[in-house]
TrEMBL record:
GO terms for biological process: chemical synaptic transmission; Golgi to plasma membrane transport; protein targeting to membrane; protein transport; vesicle docking involved in exocytosis; vesicle tethering involved in exocytosis. Component of the exocyst complex involved in the docking of exocytic vesicles with fusion sites on the plasma membrane. This is Exocyst complex component Sec8. Belongs to the SEC8 family. Residues 266-452 form the Exocyst complex component Sec8 middle helical bundle domain. InterPro entries: Sec8/EXOC4, Sec8_exocyst_N, Sec8_M. GO terms for cellular component: exocyst; growth cone membrane; synapse. Residues 56-145 form the Exocyst complex component Sec8 N-terminal domain. Keywords: Exocytosis, Protein transport, Transport.
């Protein structure tokens, strides 16, 4: 209920007052106001205001009393009840005090008797306590058995420690417990052995994830193990491995009380169980012994772990462990290492848990000597040492290093022009080759096979004995355990990536360089790379060997061997490839696979690839020279000389027929019209005719390729090197140079690391060399077919008789030889070249033949009507043959036939025809026709001949003007 004082309080705040003295202060302020005011009217106003405020406060007080009447009544009643209870309690206390004083007086008179009774009670209580302790001691052995069977080691340790303490303390004088005391003390002394064995079992067996190794060796973690260790189901590595000791400060260690629940299985929580074992050993004062025993037994326990993992892999593969050593199956080694990595991570993590508990216990009590302690660096060092021994056997390090080959350290080739490969070289004497050998005889094969089996058995036996002696695998009787796959250096390709990942993980934990990384780096650098180089070099040498032929001329033997049809279908190529090229490509593919398997050594493998390509390039160029050169003076065939000529080669590459061979650049008839193509063909024919149709002797046979097998070889070289260069070009395009990285590429690493820019440029140069040689081979075939036309057609006009009798109408023998040569070439190229390249070889060949026959009319001495028919039959025979080859009518040869049929006309009739129809040939062609006519048909004077020539000039000029 609000009081008057409370009602007045708000107005008092106007004067800055509050609290207990607010009302009196307010009154004093009114008095001061009234006394200080001299004006009566002002005092009256102040009085009136105060009275008004008083009436309002009184009215407000009355309203509050009316509204809260019931509450005030209840408060008064409660206050009265409390006052009554307090008075009654005071009376009771006063009475109790009087009673206590009375008891004190009575006890004072009975104190001696009470003291005696108290002493008797204490004595009886001590006797009862001792009897209870004796009963407990008698039950200790049964309790210990129960606790140990249930693995409640903390309760067992506390029980035995307390029991021994009682027997050596309060119960030391009880003779009846002497035998029990002896047994319990012996049990206590031996109990730490059980704890250490259990601790080792938990670290090396129970801590391992339960792997489900099915056939095919797919390893999966159980959901229970994945949840306990924080692993996602199916992963090989934990989310985070604990840091090594020393990486955390002592203050960051969690100190907590270890509790053991008797109603649950203590092994369900590995962390708590390890802590219980450490606590138990600490209670037994045997923690230093346990630490030292674990430190010394680490090697043997890890060896046992690896041996068990090998047996698991053998069981999951469905094979016998002793037979797996004979098979090259590195996938089982990969699975073994993954399983061992997985298990050693768990072992290391459990060691970390144990060491954390050791630190917790020793920091608060028992100190350990430095020589007894170990930390996580020691654990990971021992794990790496065991893995190094394991890998040294599976990688066959001893034999690999003993037969070590030196790998090329780098590839450095100065830029050079491809033309230098076609320069003259001194002939190299051929090696002497034995006439026959017995290597392939049945006896030699059986002896060699038996020798290999004995060597393999000895190698496996020595390796297994070394493993057993080093303690890596135990010896069962006299037979040591064997390998899960055949030991060889190339096993590194299957295990390098997971091994590298594991090494990086270990280095992150240890914050130092891994010894295992040094071992792997030394093995790869000093042994594996050399062995790879030796193997690849041996394969390349076998595929590209040079042998001696009967005539003493060396040839590239591999150029004569092409792949079979099955291999061609597997490769998806339209035409046969050289076996040597496919073998080299296979070796390059192996090196490319090694670049992906061992990405840290991609540069070294790329150097090997460049070395292999360089050697193969030199052998290809050497083989090419052997084909295109002849005689001791090293003269080359005409087509080869022209193919490497810069001007001729540049012109031939500018023709539409060549451009149509390039990818996605087919000949566009809208760009190159028929007239333009005819002009280009005329230019090509003119170049060839100007170089080959001189007044000199006919082309010698040694300056052309007469053996169709050699032409097939050139075609095979072209197809093979073009296919090979395309594959190399794709490979080079997939590589990234080191100096060409942008920030985005650095954030998004590719499968292969950046490659040395210098080596990559060398690779691209080698690819260009192979492309150039492939193009040169195609140009050579293109030119060779045309030179064959010159070789056979030049004698047609220079050596044959076209003024003979009427019965001499058969085609010239050289024409028949040309047709036979073209047919055999067509048969060969159909099998060896793709259709578009076959078309490039024979396209516009009819135009060239017509141009040769027309141009060489100047070398005919005489011709009669029979000779004209014979020449027309020559042209018809060639036309029919070319039509069968190209499957298109060679209309250009119709033009040559029309040209020779003009000889049926007299010079005057020929001039009239030119005047009427216009010129169809050049001025020089008509001039040669008229001169041949005059040589063949005598009786025309010189003046008549000159007149006809002048008329020819005028007619030709008029025709050209009309054309313009």
């Amino acid at each position: 209920m609000a009081t008057l004082e409370e009602m007045k309080t708000p107005s008092s705040h106007q004067y800055g007052l509050s609290g207990k003295d607010s009302s009196s202060a307010y009154l004093m302020s009114i008095v001061r106001t009234l006394s200080s005011s001299a004006d009566f009217e002002q005092r009256e106003k102040e009085k009136t205001r105060i009275e008004k405020a008083f009436r309002e406060s009184d009215k407000r007080l009355g309203e509050l009393v009316t509204d809260n009447y019931q509450d005030v009544t209840k408060i008064l009643q409660a206050f009265n009840g409390m006052t009554k209870s307090i008075n009654e309690s005071r009376d009771k206390i006063r009475k109790i005090k009087e009673d206590l004083n009375s008891c004190k007086t009575l006890l004072h008179f009975k104190r001696d008797e009470l003291r005696k009774l108290w002493k008797d009670g204490v004595e009886q209580k001590a006797i009862l306590s001792m009897l209870e302790q004796v009963e407990q001691i008698k039950e200790v052995q049964d309790k210990m058995k129960t606790y140990i069977d249930n693995k409640h080691y903390l309760h067992a340790t506390d029980t035995i420690v307390q029991a021994v303490a009682m027997l050596e303390g309060p119960l030391s004088g009880v003779d009846a417990l002497r035998e029990v005391k002896f047994d319990l003390i012996n049990f206590k002394e031996k109990m730490h052995e059980t704890l250490i064995q259990e601790l080792s079992k938990q670290i090396y067996e129970r801590s391992l994830p339960t792997s489900s190794l099915q056939r095919g060796s797919q390893m999966r973690l159980s959901r229970k193990d994945a949840s306990v260790w924080g692993w996602s189901d199916g992963l090989d590595s934990p989310r985070k491995v604990p840091k090594i000791e020393g990486s955390e400060t002592p203050s960051s260690k969690a100190y907590y009380e270890i509790k053991e629940d008797l109603s649950s299985d203590p092994q369900e929580n590995l962390n708590n169980f390890i802590a219980i074992l450490a606590e138990s050993l600490f209670a037994l004062r045997k923690l230093p012994d346990a630490v030292e025993r674990l430190k010394l037994g680490m090697k043997g326990s890890l060896n046992k772990l690896i041996n068990t993992a090998s047996q698991q892999i053998a069981e999951s593969s469905g094979q016998q462990l002793d037979s797996m050593v004979n098979h090259v199956q590195p996938k089982y080694l990969n699975e073994l290492l993954k399983l061992v990595f997985q298990q050693t991570r768990c072992v290391a993590q459990t060691h970390q848990i144990f060491l954390d508990n050791v630190f917790r216990l020793t920091s608060s009590g028992m100190p350990l000597h430095s020589h007894m302690l170990y930390d996580m660096k020691d654990v990971w060092s021992e794990i790496q040492a065991r893995l190094q021994i394991l890998l040294s056997q599976y990688l066959d390090v001893s034999n690999t290093i003993s037969s070590r080959q030196q790998a090329p350290t780098g590839f450095d080739e100065p830029s050079m022009d491809i033309s230098q490969y076609f320069s003259k070289r001194k002939p190299i004497k051929g090696k002497k080759v034995s006439l026959f050998r017995f290597d392939a005889s049945q006896h030699a094969i059986s002896v060699s096979s038996a020798r290999q089996q004995i060597q393999q058995y000895e190698h496996v036996r020595l390796a297994a004995n070394f493993m057993a002696e080093s303690g890596l695998w135990p010896v069962i009787g006299t037979h040591p355990c064997f390998f899960v796959c055949k030991p060889e250096a190339f096993n590194i390709t299957a295990i390098y990536k997971p091994l590298k990942s594991f090494i990086l993980e270990v280095e992150e934990i240890m914050q130092t360089t891994s010894g295992l990384q040094e071992f792997i780096s030394e093995f790869v650098q000093n042994a594996f790379l050399g062995q790879v180089h030796a193997k690849v070099s041996e394969n390349i040498e076998a595929a590209t060997r040079v042998e001696e032929e009967e005539d003493g001329h060396k040839c590239f033997d591999a150029l004569r061997n092409v792949i079979d049809e099955k291999t061609r279908r597997e490769l998806g190529v339209p035409r046969p490839l050289l076996q040597s090229t496919v073998t080299v490509d296979s070796s390059i593919q192996e090196l490319q696979d090694l670049m992906h398997d061992l990405p840290d050594y991609a540069d070294q493998f790329l150097n090997m690839i460049c070395n292999v390509l360089r050697d193969y390039r030199e052998k290809c160029h050497s083989a090419y020279r052997d084909i295109v050169q002849h005689g001791s003076d090293e003269k080359r065939i005409i087509s080869a000389t022209w193919a490497k000529d810069d001007d001729i080669s540049r012109f031939l590459r500018s023709l539409p027929s060549w451009r149509s061979l390039q990818p996605r650049k087919e000949l566009d008839r809208t760009i190159c019209s028929e007239e333009e193509i005819e002009a280009l063909n005329s230019k090509e024919s003119g170049i060839l005719i100007s170089n080959l149709s001189g007044d000199e002797a006919i082309i010698p046979q040694q300056e052309i390729i007469t053996d169709v097998t050699q032409m097939r070889t050139v075609a095979n070289v072209h197809e093979s090197l073009e296919w090979f260069a395309d594959r190399l070009d794709q490979f080079a395009a997939s590589l990234t140079p080191q100096n060409n990285l942008n920030p985005v590429q650095e954030e998004l690493p590719t499968e292969l690391p950046p490659i040395s820019e210098k080596t990559l440029l060398s690779l691209k140069q080698l690819v260009k060399d192979f492309k150039d040689l492939a193009e040169i081979c195609l140009l050579l075939l293109h030119l060779e077919v045309r030179i064959h036309c010159f070789y056979y057609l030049l004698p047609v006009t220079r050596q044959s008789n076209y003024a003979g009798p009427i019965d001499d109408l058969d085609p010239d023998s050289n024409v028949l030889k040309l047709n036979k040569d073209l047919s055999s070439t067509e048969e060969m190229m159909t099998q060896s070249l793709q259709p578009k390249k076959f078309k490039y070889i024979f396209e516009s060949l009819g135009y060239l033949v017509a141009a040769i026959l027309i141009n060489n009319i100047q070398y005919l001495n005489k011709i009669n009507e029979n000779g004209i028919k014979k020449m027309c039959r020559n042209i018809l025979a060639i036309q029919q043959n070319l039509t069968n080859i190209t499957l298109t009518r060679e209309s250009d040869l119709d033009r040559a036939k029309q040209f020779y049929e003009l000889l049926y006309l007299s010079p005057d009739e020929m001039l009239n025809s030119i005047a009427e129809k216009g010129p169809q040939f050049t001025m020089n062609d008509y001039k040669e026709l008229m001169q041949l006519y005059h040589r063949s048909f005598a009786g025309n004077s010189v003046n008549v001949q000159d007149a006809r020539m002048q008329r020819l000039h005028s007619v030709m000029e008029k025709g050209q003007n009309e054309t313009v």
